[in-house]
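User: Hey, quick favor. My workstation is busy. Could you predict this chain's structure for me?
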Amino acid sequence: MKAAHVFFSGTVQGVGFRYSCRQVAMGFDVTGWVRNVDDGRVELWVQGEPEEVKEFLKAVDESHLKGLISKAAVDWTAAEEGLTDFSISH
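Assistant: No problem, here it is.
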């Protein structure tokens, strides 16, 4: 299991970005969360089998969200225990 910790910049708050990420995640065997950051970015934590996580991130990039993202900074790390679904965090 691997995790991707991602910060998205661009027009990513107030446009349904977190909801759309959760919808995309429903099509993949991943767990994690997505939340707004006070500086205007969106933070995403997604984990699962490495290829599944990569495919999820690719699906986000190829979705309608692509036009809202100006930058995605991805840091690969070890997965955390205890995550059982993909949720919107506040």
